[in-house]
Amino acid sequence: MEFWYTEEQTENVRLSMKIKEQLYSRKSPFQQIDVFQTEEFGKLLTIDGLVMVTEKDEFVYHDMITHVAMATNPEIKRVLVIGGGDGGTVRELTRYSTIEKIDMVEIDEVVVIACREHLQQTACKLDDPRVSLYFEDGLKFVENKKDVYDLILVDSTDPIGPGEGLFTNEFYTNCFNCLSENGILINQNESPFYEHNAREMKRANTKIKNIFPICRPYQYCIPTYPSGFWLFGFASKKLDPIKDLDADRWNSLGLKTKYYNTDLHVGAFALPSYVKEMLDSE
Ligand code: SAM
């Protein structure tokens, strides 16, 4: 008998992956967490039935959430990751010896437990001495803090369930206050392709644009997310992701990356016309 995992990406579109076996299944107070061994994508983490990470394409997401900001400001020393319980974002950050402190705030400890046990590919650096783990709501964590981080990476689920608060004006304003003068915020900015994702993409972008002087969404292609075409938002107080990119300095670090490079960095900010129109119309 064959065993398939299916995600309903929209009411009319589904993505299925053939499964070898289910490795983990637990309902936490926040959400349903499952890990599967797939035939094509290696291990797969799902939350509430939605794809979060697969071993085969996680490099796209984790390269793009991390290296764009790090190449724009190589002086980043204090980083906050919100969500990111699989550990992939922390893994990429730990590759920079210049980073002194990484705080990760994950609302659901069960995600970290599941990934430490079954997704070592991403969870492998959670014990780095620079990393502190906090199991609480990211929305609360950023309240009443001033100038404590140079970079905030919002590695969240979609704006439903516990992730909802991470797409609000209140949250983005608190992030602005938490950041230093050269601070950068990168957020999971959804996708322009299917209507329900596009709505959230526009809403998030409008809010951030009203709070941060610089707001520039950028794209990445990831096979297992709906439509394969997704955005991160780059927002900052001062630094421009293209004008301030120091490509030579980043390349001199000699970091080997499978998706990110400094040519792609520039190209990722060139958006298709329909996406520009959507963002401009807000
Ligand atoms: N790469 C993923 C994606 O976009 O599909 C994100 C994966 S990561 C596992 C998302 C994490 O955000 C989840 O583990 C979830 O528990 C966490 N999360 C959701 N809402 C949160 C909140 N309010 N505060 C902190 N973490 C939150």
Counting DSSP E segments of at least 2 residues, the number of strands comes to 12
Using only CA atoms, what is the Rg?
A: 18 Å
Question: CATH superfamily membership of the largest domain, which one?
Answer: Vaccinia Virus protein VP39
Quaternary organization: single chain
Bound molecules: S-adenosylmethionine
EC number: 2.5.1.16
Function: Catalyzes the irreversible transfer of a propylamine group from the amino donor S-adenosylmethioninamine (decarboxy-AdoMet) to putrescine (1,4-diaminobutane) to yield spermidine.
GO molecular function: spermidine synthase activity
Family: Belongs to the spermidine/spermine synthase family.
Which helices and strands appear, and what pairs or packs with what?
Elements: E1 4-8, E2 14-27, E3 32-38, E4 43-47, E5 50-54, H1 58-72, E6 78-83, H2 88-93, E7 101-105, H3 109-118, H4 120-123, E8 131-134, H5 138-141, E9 149-155, H6 169-178, E10 179-188, H7 195-211, E11 214-221, E12 229-236, H8 247-252, H9 262-267, H10 273-280
Parallel strand pairs: 6-7, 6-9, 7-8, 9-10
Antiparallel strand pairs: 1-2, 2-3, 3-4, 4-5, 10-12, 11-12
Bound molecules: S-adenosylmethionine (SAM).
EC number: 2.5.1.16
Pathway: Amine and polyamine biosynthesis; spermidine biosynthesis; spermidine from putrescine: step 1/1
GO biological process, one term: spermidine biosynthetic process
